[in-house]
Amino acid sequence: MARTFPDGFLWGSATAAAQIEGAAHEDGKLDSIWDAYARVPGAVANGDTPERAVDHYHRYREDVALMRDLGLDSYRFSTSWARVVPDGRTVNAAGLDFYSRLVDELLEAGILPWLTLYHWDLPQALQEQGGWANRDVVARFADYAEATYAALGDRVSHWTTFNEPFCSSLIGHVGGEHAPGLNDPRAGLAAVHHQHLAHGTAVSLLRERADASGREIELGITLNLTNAVPLNPHDLADVEAARRIDAIWNRMYLDPMLRGAYPADLLDDVRGQGLDDVIEPGDLEVISAPIDFLGVNHYHDDCVSGRPLPADHVPSAKPTDKPGRSPFVGSEYVTMPWRGLPRTAMDWEVHPAGLRTLLVRLGEEYEHLPPLYVTENGAAYDDEVSADGAVHDPERTAYIEAHVDAVADAIADGADVRGYFVWSLLDNFEWAWGYDKRFGIVHVDYETMVRTPKDSALWYARRIAASRPVAASASTVGGNPAD
Ligand code: GBH
């Protein structure tokens, strides 16, 4: 039987600006680091770029109509910093106007806008001044947040500062698979700290602005969190590897924000690599500004080992043959072996129980944990439009259903989870994978831009409808005497 959810549970879907908008150089928008990085030969699969993406910039009305048809309560999207402040300093009114029209369209459709300020697309102009490794970026981010709030704060109540800072700092600056494509641990750790600071600064600033105008505001951040599972729980090398990955992946983000300090073991793990050098007195106070919600993105657990991979280990697929390095500064020796679970087209393992474990564990480990939202969860599979015009994606439906159930189980276990956003509404530009991997519940034909809801979208719409409180539908049938 389908699990039940508390009244008011928010059902949504998520996207990000660089992945769907296109119009990369229209109405004043300049290069983001992803526009620039995609032009580096070998950086993105098939030489794909975000230039046109899925043309959402011109088709947002059609896309909002799709969301309305699916019955979404909320739509999680990001604003493009390079559209709003193209040169990093001067606000572009035409850029803000696009988001203003999008927000109006959403509100008219009865959909709650859930806005993220940074989903990886720094203006290239700021990258040229050192980007996230330069502390000045914090003030630039605050100005961008303030301009965006000034334009949209009268209609948008839910604000997320960052999406998955782990990826844009460590995968972007150390692993090198994401823009700006560096292999520089010092820059990576500086980016970590400066993103933390930018987050805390923006939270305090927007809170102040909202309070001054007597508006309701919900402020938070979205982190990609994992369960680091030791391959052999009886092997101390694997247990130590799991501790290290948990430290750099989860606690390096959670602890400064929720406890006001970097974890002591993490500071030891990265000693001498530059993190200490960028922390200034008072920073942790800024970073730990109270938040109203924590967004959790989770796709899969990570099985880890402190020993070399076996000789017959098949490495997971990589988007390009660009050489990379481990993003785990100070713990580069840690390996990620397979556990023999089924995998998606990304080679990510499918293990829905991990989501339940993660959500429950957060509440147990953090005393001051705000309410949780699953802000991303979903799966890539190789989809095709079939002869009947439909897109049959039973694996994606099964994946989403099992994870939605895992969220319900976590709630039953006591986790305070208030919503679930499936990644993604549309097939889109999957970063270094380009258009090779499809995460959408709606299929996009990349030639014609025609949108076709996949079977998983139709399933999701039914799941949402079935979980609406009975009272809502009973009022028309059941005879509320007040009507
Ligand atoms: C999310 O990130 C993004 O927010 C979204 O934009 C994206 O489209 C979606 O998921 C699907 O990819 O090499 O060991 O460092 C993806 C989450 C977590 C995936 C970290 C890559 C790297 C593991 N990412 N993971 S490692």
What does this structure look like?
The protein is an alpha/beta fold and about 475 residues long. The protein is built from 17 helices and 12 strands. The strands form 3 sheets. Strands 1-2-3-4-5-7-9-10 form an 8-stranded parallel barrel, surrounded by 5 helices. The chain has a two-stranded parallel ribbon with strand order 6-8. Strands 11-12 form a two-stranded antiparallel ribbon. Helix 7 packs parallel to helix 9. The longest helix is centred in the middle third of the chain and has 28 residues, at about 185-210. Bound molecules: ligand GBH. Ligand GBH binds near residues 16, 171, 175 and 423. Ligand GBH binds near residues 163, 167 and 327.
SSE map:
Layout: E1 10-14, H1 17-20, H2 33-38, H3 56-70, E2 74-78, H4 81-84, H5 93-108, E3 112-118, H6 124-127, H7 137-152, E4 158-163, H8 165-175, H9 185-212, E5 218-224, E6 228-230, H10 236-259, H11 264-269, H12 275-278, H13 283-287, E7 293-297, E8 302-304, H14 353-365, E9 372-376, H15 394-412, E10 417-423, E11 442-444, E12 451-453, H16 455-466, H17 470-477
Parallel strand pairs: 1-2, 1-10, 2-3, 3-4, 4-5, 5-7, 6-8, 7-9, 9-10
Antiparallel strand pairs: 11-12
Helix pairs in contact: 3-5, 7-9, 8-9, 14-15, 15-16
